[in-house]
Amino acid sequence: METEVLKIDRENIDEDIIKRAAVLLRRGELVAIPTETVYGLGANGLDEKACLNIFKTKNRPADNPLILHISNKEMLYNLVEDVSDDAKKLMTLWPGPLTMIFKKSEIIPEVVTAGGDTVAVRFPVDEIARRIIEEANIPIAAPSANISGRPSPTNASDCYYDLNGKIPLIIDGGDCNIGIESTVIDMSEDTPTILRPGFYTLEYIREILPNVALDDALVDDNKIPKSPGQKYKHYAPKARMQVYVGDMASDFIYKKAREYQNKGIKVGVLVFEDNMKRFEGFERISFGDRSDLSQMSHVLFTALRKMDKLKVDLILAEGVMDNNLGKSIMNRMKKSAAGNIEYL
Ligand code: TXA
Ligand code: MG
Protein backbone atom coordinates (compact mmCIF):
# COMPACT_ATOMS: atom_id res chain seq x y z
CA MET A 1 0.00 0.00 0.00
CA GLU A 2 1.20 3.46 -0.92
CA THR A 3 1.29 5.75 2.15
CA GLU A 4 0.43 9.35 1.36
CA VAL A 5 1.65 12.17 3.65
CA LEU A 6 -0.42 15.36 3.51
CA LYS A 7 0.90 18.43 5.26
CA ILE A 8 -1.51 20.84 6.92
CA ASP A 9 -0.60 24.45 7.57
CA ARG A 10 -1.89 25.24 11.06
CA GLU A 11 -2.32 28.92 10.19
CA ASN A 12 -4.60 28.05 7.33
CA ILE A 13 -6.16 24.61 7.74
CA ASP A 14 -7.01 23.02 4.40
CA GLU A 15 -10.54 21.64 4.79
CA ASP A 16 -10.07 19.31 1.80
CA ILE A 17 -7.32 17.45 3.65
CA ILE A 18 -9.48 17.22 6.78
CA LYS A 19 -12.26 15.77 4.63
CA ARG A 20 -9.91 13.23 2.98
CA ALA A 21 -8.90 11.97 6.42
CA ALA A 22 -12.49 11.87 7.65
CA VAL A 23 -13.74 9.97 4.60
CA LEU A 24 -11.03 7.32 4.97
CA LEU A 25 -11.78 6.95 8.68
CA ARG A 26 -15.51 6.56 8.06
CA ARG A 27 -14.70 3.91 5.46
CA GLY A 28 -12.84 1.84 8.08
CA GLU A 29 -9.30 2.78 6.99
CA LEU A 30 -6.45 3.82 9.32
CA VAL A 31 -5.10 7.39 9.30
CA ALA A 32 -2.22 8.74 11.42
CA ILE A 33 -3.16 12.11 12.88
CA PRO A 34 -1.35 14.68 15.01
CA THR A 35 -2.46 15.44 18.56
CA GLU A 36 -0.90 17.75 21.16
CA THR A 37 0.76 14.77 22.89
CA VAL A 38 1.97 12.34 20.21
CA TYR A 39 0.67 11.20 16.80
CA GLY A 40 -2.22 8.75 16.95
CA LEU A 41 -3.04 5.84 14.66
CA GLY A 42 -6.73 6.58 14.14
CA ALA A 43 -9.64 4.32 13.18
CA ASN A 44 -13.42 4.42 13.49
CA GLY A 45 -13.82 3.57 17.17
CA LEU A 46 -17.23 1.97 16.61
CA ASP A 47 -16.03 -0.27 13.78
CA GLU A 48 -14.75 -3.55 15.14
CA LYS A 49 -12.85 -4.49 11.98
CA ALA A 50 -11.13 -1.11 11.71
CA CYS A 51 -10.04 -1.34 15.35
CA LEU A 52 -8.76 -4.89 14.88
CA ASN A 53 -6.66 -3.52 12.05
CA ILE A 54 -5.01 -1.10 14.50
CA PHE A 55 -3.79 -4.08 16.54
CA LYS A 56 -2.53 -5.86 13.43
CA THR A 57 -0.81 -2.80 11.98
CA LYS A 58 0.98 -1.83 15.21
CA ASN A 59 1.64 -5.41 16.24
CA ARG A 60 -0.10 -4.48 19.48
CA PRO A 61 -0.80 -7.11 22.16
CA ALA A 62 -4.53 -7.94 22.06
CA ASP A 63 -5.01 -7.28 25.79
CA ASN A 64 -4.05 -3.59 25.51
CA PRO A 65 -7.21 -1.45 25.15
CA LEU A 66 -7.54 1.66 22.96
CA ILE A 67 -8.42 5.28 23.76
CA LEU A 68 -11.48 6.77 22.04
CA HIS A 69 -10.99 10.39 20.96
CA ILE A 70 -13.92 12.81 20.86
CA SER A 71 -14.32 16.36 19.57
CA ASN A 72 -16.80 17.72 22.11
CA LYS A 73 -17.87 16.85 25.65
CA GLU A 74 -21.36 15.73 24.62
CA MET A 75 -19.91 12.80 22.64
CA LEU A 76 -18.78 11.26 25.94
CA TYR A 77 -22.28 10.44 27.16
CA ASN A 78 -23.01 7.86 24.42
CA LEU A 79 -19.79 6.02 25.12
CA VAL A 80 -19.98 5.55 28.88
CA GLU A 81 -22.42 4.37 31.54
CA ASP A 82 -21.93 7.01 34.14
CA VAL A 83 -20.00 10.27 34.60
CA SER A 84 -19.22 10.89 38.27
CA ASP A 85 -19.02 14.34 39.86
CA ASP A 86 -15.24 13.90 40.13
CA ALA A 87 -15.06 13.13 36.41
CA LYS A 88 -17.10 16.25 35.68
CA LYS A 89 -14.57 18.28 37.66
CA LEU A 90 -11.70 16.83 35.63
CA MET A 91 -13.58 17.50 32.41
CA THR A 92 -12.65 21.15 32.99
CA LEU A 93 -9.19 20.07 31.73
CA TRP A 94 -10.77 19.01 28.41
CA PRO A 95 -9.90 19.57 25.67
CA GLY A 96 -6.37 18.56 26.61
CA PRO A 97 -3.80 15.83 27.30
CA LEU A 98 -5.99 13.90 29.74
CA THR A 99 -7.58 10.47 29.23
CA MET A 100 -10.32 9.30 31.58
CA ILE A 101 -11.51 5.74 32.09
CA PHE A 102 -15.23 5.06 32.58
CA LYS A 103 -17.58 2.08 32.68
CA LYS A 104 -18.29 1.48 29.01
CA SER A 105 -21.67 1.69 27.28
CA GLU A 106 -23.21 -1.00 25.06
CA ILE A 107 -22.11 0.55 21.77
CA ILE A 108 -18.36 0.07 22.32
CA PRO A 109 -16.90 -2.88 20.39
CA GLU A 110 -15.08 -5.41 22.59
CA VAL A 111 -11.86 -5.03 20.69
CA VAL A 112 -11.61 -1.38 21.86
CA THR A 113 -11.70 -2.30 25.53
CA ALA A 114 -9.77 -5.56 25.08
CA GLY A 115 -12.78 -7.36 26.48
CA GLY A 116 -12.96 -5.26 29.65
CA ASP A 117 -15.94 -3.34 31.00
CA THR A 118 -14.23 0.08 30.99
CA VAL A 119 -13.35 2.46 28.17
CA ALA A 120 -10.73 5.21 27.93
CA VAL A 121 -11.84 8.54 26.44
CA ARG A 122 -9.86 11.66 25.51
CA PHE A 123 -10.86 15.02 24.03
CA PRO A 124 -7.66 16.37 22.43
CA VAL A 125 -7.02 20.10 22.17
CA ASP A 126 -5.04 19.86 18.91
CA GLU A 127 -7.08 21.68 16.29
CA ILE A 128 -6.30 19.31 13.43
CA ALA A 129 -7.26 16.26 15.52
CA ARG A 130 -10.47 17.96 16.62
CA ARG A 131 -11.43 18.98 13.11
CA ILE A 132 -10.86 15.47 11.75
CA ILE A 133 -12.95 13.86 14.53
CA GLU A 134 -15.67 16.47 14.07
CA GLU A 135 -15.76 15.95 10.33
CA ALA A 136 -15.80 12.14 10.66
CA ASN A 137 -18.48 12.54 13.32
CA ILE A 138 -17.51 9.32 15.10
CA PRO A 139 -15.27 8.60 18.10
CA ILE A 140 -11.77 7.88 16.82
CA ALA A 141 -9.82 5.04 18.43
CA ALA A 142 -6.16 6.02 18.43
CA PRO A 143 -3.16 4.52 20.17
CA SER A 144 0.20 6.16 19.61
CA ALA A 145 1.15 5.75 15.93
CA ASN A 146 4.27 3.66 16.50
CA ILE A 147 4.96 -0.05 16.06
CA SER A 148 4.40 -1.47 19.56
CA GLY A 149 7.46 -1.18 21.76
CA ARG A 150 9.00 1.75 19.86
CA PRO A 151 9.04 5.36 21.08
CA SER A 152 5.79 7.21 20.29
CA PRO A 153 6.08 9.39 17.16
CA THR A 154 5.99 13.14 17.72
CA ASN A 155 6.24 14.17 14.06
CA ALA A 156 5.00 12.87 10.71
CA SER A 157 8.34 11.52 9.56
CA ASP A 158 8.62 9.30 12.66
CA CYS A 159 5.12 7.98 11.83
CA TYR A 160 6.22 7.35 8.26
CA TYR A 161 9.28 5.45 9.45
CA ASP A 162 7.10 3.00 11.40
CA LEU A 163 3.99 2.85 9.21
CA ASN A 164 5.10 3.40 5.62
CA GLY A 165 3.32 0.91 3.38
CA LYS A 166 0.89 -0.13 6.13
CA ILE A 167 -1.71 2.68 6.10
CA PRO A 168 -3.11 4.92 3.33
CA LEU A 169 -2.61 8.35 4.94
CA ILE A 170 -0.53 10.32 7.43
CA ILE A 171 -1.63 13.86 8.26
CA ASP A 172 1.45 16.01 8.88
CA GLY A 173 0.65 18.70 11.42
CA GLY A 174 4.27 19.35 12.42
CA ASP A 175 5.87 18.62 15.81
CA CYS A 176 3.62 17.71 18.74
CA ASN A 177 3.72 20.40 21.43
CA ILE A 178 3.90 18.12 24.45
CA GLY A 179 5.79 15.09 23.17
CA ILE A 180 4.72 12.49 25.76
CA GLU A 181 1.36 10.74 25.95
CA SER A 182 -1.68 11.91 27.91
CA THR A 183 -2.22 11.36 31.61
CA VAL A 184 -4.48 8.31 32.02
CA ILE A 185 -6.75 8.40 35.05
CA ASP A 186 -9.26 5.76 36.10
CA MET A 187 -12.59 7.36 37.05
CA SER A 188 -14.55 4.10 37.02
CA GLU A 189 -14.08 3.36 40.73
CA ASP A 190 -14.52 5.35 43.93
CA THR A 191 -10.97 6.67 44.13
CA PRO A 192 -9.73 8.42 40.97
CA THR A 193 -6.40 6.75 40.17
CA ILE A 194 -3.63 7.84 37.84
CA LEU A 195 -2.56 4.85 35.75
CA ARG A 196 -0.11 6.67 33.48
CA PRO A 197 1.46 10.02 34.42
CA GLY A 198 1.58 12.64 31.68
CA PHE A 199 1.57 16.39 31.14
CA TYR A 200 -1.07 16.73 33.85
CA THR A 201 0.82 15.65 36.94
CA LEU A 202 -0.31 14.08 40.21
CA GLU A 203 0.42 17.39 41.93
CA TYR A 204 -1.74 19.31 39.46
CA ILE A 205 -4.68 16.90 39.51
CA ARG A 206 -4.58 16.82 43.30
CA GLU A 207 -5.50 20.51 43.27
CA ILE A 208 -8.78 19.58 41.55
CA LEU A 209 -9.34 16.17 43.18
CA PRO A 210 -7.58 16.04 46.57
CA ASN A 211 -8.31 12.29 46.88
CA VAL A 212 -6.54 11.28 43.65
CA ALA A 213 -4.26 8.25 44.00
CA LEU A 214 -1.38 6.78 42.01
CA ASP A 215 -1.69 3.23 40.69
CA ASP A 216 0.37 0.95 42.98
CA ALA A 217 2.48 -0.13 40.02
CA LEU A 218 3.76 3.44 39.60
CA VAL A 219 5.26 3.26 43.10
CA ASP A 220 6.16 -0.41 43.38
CA ASP A 221 7.75 -2.27 40.45
CA ASN A 222 6.45 -5.60 41.77
CA LYS A 223 2.78 -4.62 41.38
CA ILE A 224 0.83 -5.35 38.19
CA PRO A 225 -0.25 -2.12 36.44
CA LYS A 226 -4.00 -1.53 36.01
CA SER A 227 -3.24 -0.06 32.63
CA PRO A 228 -2.15 -3.00 30.46
CA GLY A 229 0.02 -0.76 28.29
CA GLN A 230 2.21 0.06 31.29
CA LYS A 231 3.39 -3.51 31.71
CA TYR A 232 5.06 -3.83 28.34
CA LYS A 233 8.59 -2.87 27.43
CA HIS A 234 8.01 0.40 25.70
CA TYR A 235 9.48 3.50 24.16
CA ALA A 236 12.58 1.45 23.43
CA PRO A 237 15.36 2.66 21.18
CA LYS A 238 17.35 -0.05 19.43
CA ALA A 239 20.46 0.70 21.48
CA ARG A 240 20.88 -0.29 25.11
CA MET A 241 20.21 2.70 27.35
CA GLN A 242 21.39 3.75 30.82
CA VAL A 243 19.98 6.68 32.76
CA TYR A 244 21.78 8.58 35.53
CA VAL A 245 20.11 10.98 37.94
CA GLY A 246 21.63 13.38 40.46
CA ASP A 247 24.37 15.99 40.91
CA MET A 248 27.10 13.60 39.82
CA ALA A 249 25.22 12.31 36.76
CA SER A 250 27.08 14.22 34.11
CA ASP A 251 30.54 13.44 35.59
CA PHE A 252 29.59 9.81 35.66
CA ILE A 253 28.24 9.84 32.10
CA TYR A 254 31.48 11.48 30.95
CA LYS A 255 33.58 8.79 32.62
CA LYS A 256 31.42 5.97 31.25
CA ALA A 257 31.24 7.49 27.76
CA ARG A 258 35.04 7.63 27.52
CA GLU A 259 35.40 4.14 28.92
CA TYR A 260 32.97 2.61 26.42
CA GLN A 261 34.31 4.64 23.53
CA ASN A 262 37.81 3.32 24.28
CA LYS A 263 36.39 -0.18 24.01
CA GLY A 264 35.14 0.61 20.50
CA ILE A 265 31.49 0.98 21.52
CA LYS A 266 29.59 3.77 19.74
CA VAL A 267 28.13 5.94 22.50
CA GLY A 268 25.35 8.54 22.21
CA VAL A 269 24.64 10.96 25.04
CA LEU A 270 21.42 12.75 25.95
CA VAL A 271 22.18 15.61 28.33
CA PHE A 272 20.92 19.05 29.24
CA GLU A 273 22.18 22.03 27.25
CA ASP A 274 24.64 23.14 29.95
CA ASN A 275 26.53 19.85 29.53
CA MET A 276 26.53 19.65 25.74
CA LYS A 277 29.94 21.25 25.27
CA ARG A 278 31.57 18.72 27.49
CA PHE A 279 30.51 15.90 25.18
CA GLU A 280 32.07 17.20 21.99
CA GLY A 281 33.29 14.22 19.99
CA PHE A 282 30.35 12.04 21.05
CA GLU A 283 26.99 11.73 19.30
CA ARG A 284 24.95 14.06 21.51
CA ILE A 285 21.46 15.51 21.69
CA SER A 286 20.35 18.24 24.07
CA PHE A 287 17.33 18.01 26.36
CA GLY A 288 17.36 21.83 26.50
CA ASP A 289 17.47 23.92 29.65
CA ARG A 290 17.37 21.74 32.78
CA SER A 291 14.86 24.05 34.43
CA ASP A 292 12.39 23.47 31.59
CA LEU A 293 11.06 19.92 31.82
CA SER A 294 8.38 20.62 29.22
CA GLN A 295 11.19 21.10 26.70
CA MET A 296 12.67 17.76 27.79
CA SER A 297 9.34 15.97 27.30
CA HIS A 298 8.98 17.70 23.94
CA VAL A 299 12.26 16.25 22.62
CA LEU A 300 12.60 12.94 24.47
CA PHE A 301 11.03 10.48 22.00
CA THR A 302 12.45 12.19 18.93
CA ALA A 303 15.88 12.12 20.54
CA LEU A 304 15.63 8.36 21.11
CA ARG A 305 14.68 7.85 17.48
CA LYS A 306 17.54 10.10 16.33
CA MET A 307 19.97 7.99 18.34
CA ASP A 308 18.71 4.94 16.43
CA LYS A 309 19.36 6.70 13.15
CA LEU A 310 22.89 7.55 14.33
CA LYS A 311 23.31 3.80 14.96
CA VAL A 312 24.81 4.17 18.42
CA ASP A 313 25.31 0.98 20.46
CA LEU A 314 24.73 2.59 23.84
CA ILE A 315 22.78 5.63 25.01
CA LEU A 316 23.85 7.35 28.21
CA ALA A 317 21.22 9.82 29.39
CA GLU A 318 20.70 12.33 32.16
CA GLY A 319 17.46 11.71 34.04
CA VAL A 320 15.50 13.95 36.41
CA MET A 321 13.89 13.80 39.83
CA ASP A 322 10.72 11.76 40.11
CA ASN A 323 8.18 14.51 40.81
CA ASN A 324 5.85 16.79 38.85
CA LEU A 325 6.49 16.46 35.11
CA GLY A 326 9.71 14.64 36.06
CA LYS A 327 7.59 11.69 37.17
CA SER A 328 6.00 11.41 33.72
CA ILE A 329 9.35 11.75 31.97
CA MET A 330 11.03 9.16 34.21
CA ASN A 331 8.09 6.79 33.66
CA ARG A 332 9.03 6.79 29.95
CA MET A 333 12.82 6.79 30.47
CA LYS A 334 12.63 3.87 32.85
CA LYS A 335 10.95 1.76 30.20
CA SER A 336 13.25 2.97 27.41
CA ALA A 337 16.20 1.93 29.57
CA ALA A 338 14.57 -1.37 30.65
CA GLY A 339 14.87 -0.26 34.27
CA ASN A 340 18.55 0.76 34.02
CA ILE A 341 18.48 3.86 36.22
CA GLU A 342 21.17 4.85 38.71
CA TYR A 343 20.79 7.59 41.31
CA LEU A 344 24.16 9.24 42.03
O1 TXA B 1 -1.67 10.96 24.36
C1 TXA B 1 -2.20 9.87 24.17
O2 TXA B 1 -2.87 9.28 25.04
C2 TXA B 1 -2.00 9.21 22.79
C3 TXA B 1 -2.68 10.12 21.74
C4 TXA B 1 -2.66 9.52 20.37
O3 TXA B 1 -3.98 10.43 22.16
N1 TXA B 1 -2.52 7.89 22.77
C5 TXA B 1 -1.91 6.87 23.44
O4 TXA B 1 -2.53 5.65 23.29
O5 TXA B 1 -0.91 7.01 24.10
P1 TXA B 1 -1.83 4.28 23.68
O6 TXA B 1 -2.77 3.23 23.19
O7 TXA B 1 -0.45 4.25 23.16
O8 TXA B 1 -1.86 4.27 25.24
C6 TXA B 1 -3.09 4.11 25.92
C7 TXA B 1 -2.86 3.65 27.32
C8 TXA B 1 -2.33 2.23 27.38
O9 TXA B 1 -1.38 2.15 28.43
C9 TXA B 1 -3.58 1.42 27.70
O10 TXA B 1 -3.26 0.23 28.39
C10 TXA B 1 -4.35 2.39 28.57
O11 TXA B 1 -4.13 3.66 28.00
N2 TXA B 1 -5.79 2.09 28.54
C11 TXA B 1 -6.66 2.23 27.51
N3 TXA B 1 -7.90 1.83 27.86
C12 TXA B 1 -7.83 1.42 29.14
C13 TXA B 1 -8.76 0.86 30.07
N4 TXA B 1 -10.04 0.67 29.74
N5 TXA B 1 -8.30 0.54 31.31
C14 TXA B 1 -7.01 0.76 31.66
N6 TXA B 1 -6.08 1.27 30.84
C15 TXA B 1 -6.47 1.59 29.59
MG1 MG C 1 1.50 3.80 22.98
From TrEMBL:
- Residues binding L-threonine are 37, 69, 122, 142, 182
Q: Where does ATP bind?
A: 60, 64, 118, 144, 152, 196, 235
The terms under GO molecular function for this entry are: ATP binding; double-stranded RNA binding; L-threonylcarbamoyladenylate synthase; tRNA binding
Task: Kindly state which keywords UniProt assigns to this record, in alphabetical order.
Answer: ATP-binding, Cytoplasm, Nucleotide-binding, Nucleotidyltransferase, Transferase, tRNA processing
Q: Which Gene3D superfamilies match?
A: DHBP synthase, Threonylcarbamoyl-AMP synthase, C-terminal domain
Q: Per the database record, which ranges form the YrdC-like domain?
A: 15-200
- Keyword Nucleotidyltransferase in the entry? The reply is yes
Q: Which GO terms describe its cellular component?
A: cytoplasm
Matching InterPro entries: DHBP_synth_RibB-like_a/b_dom (IPR017945), Sua5-like_dom (IPR006070), Sua5/YwlC_C (IPR038385), Sua5_C (IPR005145), T(6)A37_SUA5 (IPR010923), TC-AMP_synthase_SUA5 (IPR050156)
Annotated catalysed reactions: L-threonine + hydrogencarbonate + ATP = L-threonylcarbamoyladenylate + diphosphate + H2O
- Localization in the cell: Cytoplasm
> What Pfam families does this protein map onto?
Sua5_C, Sua5_yciO_yrdC
Q: Which GO terms describe its biological process?
A: regulation of translational fidelity; tRNA processing
Q: What is its EC number?
A: 2.7.7.87
Q: Is this entry keyworded Kinase?
A: no
**Protein's job:** Required for the formation of a threonylcarbamoyl group on adenosine at position 37 (t(6)A37) in tRNAs that read codons beginning with adenine.
The UniProt similarity line reads: Belongs to the SUA5 family.
Q: What is this protein called?
A: Threonylcarbamoyl-AMP synthase
